[in-house]
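Database export, one record per block. Field names are fixed; values are copied verbatim from the stored entry.
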Amino acid sequence: MKKKEKMVACIIMVVMLIIGAAGYSMVEKKPDIPIRLLYKTNAGKVLFDHNMHSTEYDIGCIDCHHYYEEGEGMPLSCIECHYKDGDNYSRAEAFHSQCLDCHKEQETGPVKCGECHVM
């Protein structure tokens, strides 16, 4: 390789390194409040739009996160209290009663199995 070709190759490598480093630094961080949650279940995956429920429908944190105190950090995840086979409601029982009751009360949203378990 000629000296000029080596110089061009080095310049191209440096430019690619700079572009790669800049692209890596621009990766968005995980949001503090989830936008959407995907729950894997035996009946099929359920995609829950957390952002839509908390902003568009104006549902407060305490409505779903029963033991959440405003200003005391992030609310507990459902799975932290509702185990698969625990003394407390299982996660499935908690979601089914919480979600279905609200949807029926508001007369909106899915209420049949196939309307939530779609994936």
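Remark 1: The first helix runs from residue 3 to 25.
Remark 2: The first strand starts at residue 37 and ends at 39.
End of record.
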